[in-house]
């Protein structure tokens, strides 16, 4: 079986993280994207640079040897879909739905010379809880015939901790294909999700089960990052960048308190996986990474997309719901939620500004009911959260 991988998504994570890992592991890498202009540029250049930024130094990684493919180029894409045993998605929720349908269209045709189906593993490098269930459902919706899904299709969830800031206009002018990223380079994969050979790399950490690690990312990393953005905008409204906020010791302790409430959920839910020291060390590491000045990450990038980040299953309300079910405190996370409601005050055409407007004109309950009271938890849980939000808002 060939050591090939097809990566869907030539964006931040796909190019700065996933592609280098598999190139270094000896794979032939095909990099597919819907952006034909980007694919054309990558083909012409044959390489791109990653500026690996830390507070101590900056190094350049030149990425070469990959094969760009436009998703619109069916002639080039179809043979890859028919034979490659390992694929990776890094395309976001909307893109994952489209890619799942595309893969489903070719699954029944993946037959070798012995008239046997060619097994396929798909690594879901998405910032999405329960990504495998979502992808499985979309594939089944589109799949016709009698393809043996359960035995010949592996869906591998991940925990993606890599921080990659958006490129500025100046960055693009200086290097149109270049990227910036932090040194962190660990890809956490669900060991149990594979049906074929598991890729080997010093950068790959295999875990079983994966759910505790996905929740760790959501309820500590994502939650802490959101807290830094929303409380940072509240306390330091004129500061563009995230890192300078982390020089304020009182502010850092406030973010730590939020992340600790998230850690308490994990300790309650997964006592056999995590210890207090594990999670405390993880929080310390993240706070240091948030303070990476040379990364140039902005408060706006970290905090944007409020509709998703305030939804009922995501980092803030999802954490509060899990905590409420376990009678754990949520005071600090509540303060993050309330700060988020006033986050976007500049771009009046954005969806985030609509949330700000609803909050100012109609109040907390209107936003909460519309954006946050829909998810996997009972109405009673969501009501307890709303009651606590109202209590803290009143003070």
Automatic annotation (TrEMBL):
Pfam family, one: Mannitol_dh
Domain Mannitol dehydrogenase C-terminal, first and last residues per copy: 210-346
Domain Mannitol dehydrogenase N-terminal: 4-195
GO molecular function, one term: mannitol-1-phosphate 5-dehydrogenase activity
InterPro entries: 6-PGluconate_DH-like_C_sf (IPR008927), 6PGD_dom2 (IPR013328), Mannitol_DH_C (IPR013118), Mannitol_DH_N (IPR013131), NAD(P)-bd_dom_sf (IPR036291)
The keyword Oxidoreductase is annotated on this UniProt entry: yes
Top-level division of the source organism's lineage: Bacteria
GO biological process, one term: mannitol catabolic process
NAD listed as a keyword: yes
Entry keywords, A to Z: NAD, Oxidoreductase
GO cellular component entries: cytosol
Protein's name according to its UniProt entry: Mannitol-1-phosphate 5-dehydrogenase
């Amino acid at each position: 079986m060939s050591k090939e991988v097809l990566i869907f998504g030539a964006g931040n994570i796909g190019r700065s993280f996933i592609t280098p890992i598999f190139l270094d592991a000896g794979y032939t890498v095909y990099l597919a994207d819907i952006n034909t202009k980007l694919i054309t540029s990558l083909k012409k250049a044959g390489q791109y640079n990653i500026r690996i930024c830390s507070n101590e130094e900056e190094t350049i990684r030149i990425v070469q040897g990959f094969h760009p493919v436009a998703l619109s180029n069916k002639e080039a894409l179809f043979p890859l879909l028919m034979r490659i045993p390992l694929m990776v998605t890094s395309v976001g929720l909307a893109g994952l739905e489209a890619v799942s349908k595309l893969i489903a269209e070719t699954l029944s045709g993946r037959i070798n010379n012995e008239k046997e189906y060619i097994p396929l593993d798909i690594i879901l490098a998405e910032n999405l809880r329960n990504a495998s269930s979502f992808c499985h459902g979309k594939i089944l919706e589109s799949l016709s015939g009698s393809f043996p899904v359960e035995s010949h299709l592996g869906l591998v969830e991940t925990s993606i901790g890599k921080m990659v800031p958006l490129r500025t206009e100046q960055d693009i002018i200086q290097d149109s294909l270049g990227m910036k990223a932090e040194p962190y380079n660990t890809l956490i994969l669900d060991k149990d999700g594979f049906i074929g050979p598991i890729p080997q790399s010093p950068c790959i950490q295999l875990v079983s089960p994966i759910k505790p690690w996905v929740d760790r990312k959501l309820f500590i990393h994502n939650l802490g990052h959101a807290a830094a953005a929303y409380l940072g905008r509240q306390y330091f409204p004129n500061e563009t960048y995230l890192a300078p906020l982390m020089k304020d010791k009182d502010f850092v302790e406030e973010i730590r308190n939020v992340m600790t409430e998230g850690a308490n959920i994990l300790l309650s839910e997964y006592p056999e996986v995590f210890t207090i020291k594990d999670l405390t060390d993880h929080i310390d590491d993240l706070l240091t990474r948030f303070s990476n000045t040379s990364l140039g990450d902005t408060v706006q990038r970290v905090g944007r997309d409020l509709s998703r980040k305030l939804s009922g299953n995501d980092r803030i309300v999802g954490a509060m719901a899990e905590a409420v079910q376990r009678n754990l405190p949520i005071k600090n996370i509540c303060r993050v939620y309330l700060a988020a409601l006033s986050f976007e005050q500049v771009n009046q055409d954005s969806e985030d500004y609509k949330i700000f407007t609803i909050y100012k004109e109609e109040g907390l309950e209107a936003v909460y009911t519309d954006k946050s009271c829909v998810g996997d938890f009972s109405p009673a849980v969501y009501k307890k959260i709303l009651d606590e939000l109202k209590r803290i808002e009143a003070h």
